[in-house]
Amino acid sequence: MIYLDHHAATPLRAAVVRAMDEARAAGWANPSSVHAAGRRARAVLEGARDAVAGALGASPSDVVLTGGGTEACNLGVLGLGRAAKRVVVSAVEHPAVSEAVARLEARGLSVVRLPAPDGRVPEPAQAGVRLDVDTLVCLAWVSHETGTVFPVEAWAAACGRAGASMFVDATQALGKLPVAVDALGADAVAFAASKLGGPAGAGSLWVRRGREVAPVLAGGAQERGRRPGTPDVVAHAGFGAACAGLPERLSAMEAIGARRDALEAVLVAAGAVVNGAGAPRVATVTNTSVPAWRGETLVAALDLEGLCASSGAACSSGLGKPSPVVRAMVPDAPWRAESALRLSLGPETTDDEVARAGAVLRRVLARGGSSGKF
Question: pTM for the full model?
Answer without folding.
Answer: 0.94
